Amino acid sequence: MPSTPTWSNWSGSASCTPAEVQRPASETAIVAAVRSAATQRQGLRVVGSGHSFTPLVATDGVLISLDGYQGI
Known about the structure:
Layout: E1 7-8, E2 15-16, E3 20-22, H1 27-39, E4 44-47, E5 62-65
Parallel strand pairs: 3-5, 4-5
Antiparallel strand pairs: 1-2
């Protein structure tokens, strides 16, 4: 289920409040998230561990965490 928390990297030097955060657990859910963002004309970023010092993940669109996705 989507949620909308504020995201920040480990140091707090980069942060954002995305319109939506998704945590898909399957390839099908990832594809659906990408299609939904495209349909809504929203930007989409994938968050990793949050160790970057640059605002690569910062978005006001859709933020996807792959923490729940297992497999290749």
